[in-house]
Amino acid sequence: MRFKEWIKSLRLWSLTAATIPVLVGSACAYRSGHFSWNIFTLTMLSGWALQVAVNLLNTYGDYRSGVDLRKKKVTCVILINGQFKPWEVLTSALIFTALGALLGLWAAALSSWNLLYFAVPGVLGVICYTTGTKYKYIGLGVPAVFVLMGVVMVMAAYYAHTCALSWTALVVSLPVSALVAVILHGNDLRDFESDAAAGIRTTASMLGLAYGKVLFCILHVAAYIAVVVGVAFSVLPLWSLLALLAAPLSFKVCETCLTTFQPGAEHAEAQSLVIVSVQTHLLFGILLTIGMAVG
Prior knowledge:
By secondary structure, this protein is mainly α. It has a single domain, classed as Farnesyl Diphosphate Synthase. It is built from 12 helices and no strands. Helix 2 (16-31) packs parallel to helix 12 (268-294), helix 3 (37-65) packs antiparallel against helix 6 and helix 5 packs antiparallel against helix 6 (141-162). It is globular, with a radius of gyration of 19 Å. The chain starts with a helix and ends with a helix. 51% of the residues are buried. The mean pLDDT is 91.
């Protein structure tokens, strides 16, 4: 029973957030004539390990900060119900962090040690999310995720294959950044009231509910604008426009955000902000990967 609950706490469904940046960066490298299955496997596994680590650290940090104790519905209950001790969750998180770092070092050994310029900020971002500096609780979660799980991860995947920097990789990372950041922002909007009760400042709480909704929609729309502009200036291939097929999902969730959304994990509309944003990020990312690879 404990093992089953521990597996649930890893939130393996969230691995799409780490999968898409690696896929897009690798597709960009493939388009430039550079691709290695060994590098791809190592960067993907490293990304997955670090994603699991940040999930566990989020569970640990939210419990320690008292956030989960104020929520009516908690994503991971293993600490609240006493099935696990805080030190067990923290230890598991550190093990996955170390695994992700080691896999990153392995990729750097096969590619270039300059890859560490991308890997080190990524590992620090995991450790400091809800522990250490706890930047999630001071309104920096969304900006940090935009940079680390978008720009940095896409560029790292590209660099691991090519040992070079590219404007194309940078531009193609921007829509990925916007759509991964909006997942966290949707989560913060959903938990707007419970975070406020715990005295935690998120990007949503700093902006206020009305402006937070606006930012949610801006991040969705910005992803499509980035692709269109990239194609218009011949930085991205024409086939990148395949990603626009994900627009109905974004339209649906933005409409929900601006009309029927109410904060609180017990509301279906609030949950949909996260769920549909995850689906959008996944579909958009897969289509963009295909577009970059065949373009």
